Amino acid sequence: MRRGNDVKRVNRLLIIILLFELTSWTIGHELHHNLVNEVSNEKIQGEPFGYDKPISSMIRVSDVKNIVQTSAPVLTQYFNHAPISIDGNADFTTQAGVENWSGDGTPSNPIVIDGLNITGPPESVLIKINNTNLYFQISNCILGEGFIGIDLDYVSNGLIEKNIIYNSNDIGITLWVSHNITIISNSIFANDRDGILVYYSDDNVVQENSIYNNDDDGIRLLYADFNLVKNNIIHNNSAGLHGGILLRGTHNTSVTGNTIFNNGWYGIWSDHTNVANLHLNNIFNHSAQGMRIYSSNTAQILGNVLTNNTNGIMVYESDNSFINSNTIDNCVEHGIFLDSSSNNSVTYNNLKGNNPTGFVLGDLQAFDNGADNVFMYNYWHDWTSPDDNDDGIVDVPYLIDGSANNQDPFPLVFPNPPFHFLTVPIVLSLNDGETYSGDVPIYWTGSIDSLGHSVTYRISYSADNGTTWVTLESGFVTTSYDWDTTTVPNGINYLVKINASCSEGLWEADTSDNNFAIDNPTPPSTSTTTTTTSTGTSWNGLLSFLYIGLILAWRRSKKSP
């Protein structure tokens, strides 16, 4: 399997067995009132507390007003607790026993830290976990006024779900050399630095979080590879030179389906990266770039909507990027700006109302001072005629600002229709080559259809390393499936595959990274094997008949004088 275009092997978290079984949170009005009073200092007063709405598709500018007025779900019960510090598997197991945390740290029974309210002190990490590979879950907790809300160092196999993390003196959540962590459906706000920092940590998922009013970046990934950042709402972070999402020194990371707006400087900044997949993000209202690619290679910028930024997309000292099927409008300066960059492809984009006053050079919507960059089949709203032969292509090329003296030789008369593509459903479980038995949960990331079509899944397995496949379920609409492995033979060459398909027939698929084994114990025999002759006589029955006859004869002999 490739690990490239859509962040293969992003996560191997079997612990999310509870993720889709948890019931929806209910809003505890009295607790919510008390909690807001507790945290409503000058820094966050008057700001929305969060969201309880899952993000299943891109959100447009017109939708934001309704979203930001929605309050986060809050537990009706929680327990006050001192800060927690765990170091190593043994310590984790010991504390779980003392605290009565459920679970034993196995994939199907993670240790669960749930429903705690930890407030300060300001110099303390509220939940600190070091040096463990046990499966665990931190959920439904309120963590505020500390130094860091949750800090994981040299940790793997964790789920951080549905927590409220606020007013940290440093960062909301940090991962340091930690892998296979899923951070999902949290509200993270008003922290003095980043909302989430992922540092030297690979194969993690950051999904469907509400991240706002943090002083630096909403999400920052540093030297972290094969991570997935998906369907988050990120807004009003940074009053200075920071923004929504920062990728620095990362490789093969996907940023997909996020709504990013009103951050201090940029929406997404990709810096010294290799293969950044930036798909289907909605980015608007930034004082610098909606998206900036700096000193990077092979960015794939596909299907994004960028509105009301200073520049839409800036590519600086970066090569071999694909800028395709994006909508870029109403930017103060150029919609697309290529600076000291080469071999980039700019095709099938729609540009409207950018650089309207000629603020930079002329009033053209794109700039290029690099080499060997290609512009083709873009729609430029200010260049839609003449088309004397009615082929849909303007007869005169569209000129591009900049010293490259570039042009789009095929400017389109009409806007490009939305590009139809489906993101890959990434298999999250059964990737580690281990041995399984009984009921085994299969998890995968949901696919996004760029046109909003409904998506269904087919779950299949192979017992022979992918030579043949057997369907377990088709037409499935959720992203988890419980597989009863007792119905299949034991073996060592199993794989699972998820096929996603939209209602219009477009499909994508992903397979588990490694072969895994199925080893269910053989049930005890309840009957004796029967052997028959060619005439159908049962030797077992005959032997039983003789045996019973001998017993009866023996009993009679005992009764004889």
Description of the structure:
This protein is mainly β and about 550 residues long. It is built from four helices and 44 strands. It has a 34-stranded parallel β-sheet that branches. The radius of gyration is 29 Å and the shape is globular. The chain starts with about 30 loop residues before the first helix and ends with a helix.
Secondary-structure map:
Layout (H helix, E strand, L loop, with lengths): L28 H11 L24 H5 L10 E2 L3 E4 L1 H11 L11 E4 L1 E4 L5 E8 L3 E4 L2 E3 L3 E14 L2 E3 L4 E6 L2 E6 L2 E3 L6 E4 L5 E3 L2 E3 L6 E4 L5 E3 L2 E3 L7 E6 L2 E6 L2 E3 L4 E6 L2 E6 L2 E13 L5 E3 L2 E12 L5 E3 L2 E3 L6 E4 L5 E3 L2 E3 L13 E3 L5 E3 L2 E2 L17 E2 L7 E2 L26 E2 L2 E5 L11 E8 L7 E7 L3 E5 L6 E12 L4 E5 L4 E3 L20 H21 L2
Parallel strand pairs: 1-4, 2-5, 3-6, 4-7, 5-8, 6-8, 7-9, 8-10, 8-11, 9-12, 10-13, 11-14, 12-15, 13-16, 14-17, 15-18, 16-19, 17-20, 18-21, 19-22, 20-23, 21-24, 22-24, 23-25, 24-26, 25-27, 26-28, 26-29, 27-30, 28-31, 29-32, 30-33, 31-34, 37-44
Antiparallel strand pairs: 35-36, 38-41, 39-40, 39-42, 42-43, 42-44
Describe, in short, the structure shown:
The chain is mainly beta and 561 residues long.
Mean pLDDT: 82
Helical content, roughly?
under 10%
End-to-end Cα distance: 83 Å
Q: Spans with pLDDT under 50 lasting ≥5 residues?
A: 1-75, 524-561
In quaternary terms, these chains amount to single chain
Rg, alpha carbons? 29 Å
Secondary structure: number of strands = 44
Tally of DSSP helical segments: 4
- Note the beta-strand portion: 35-45%
Main sheet overview: 34 strands, parallel
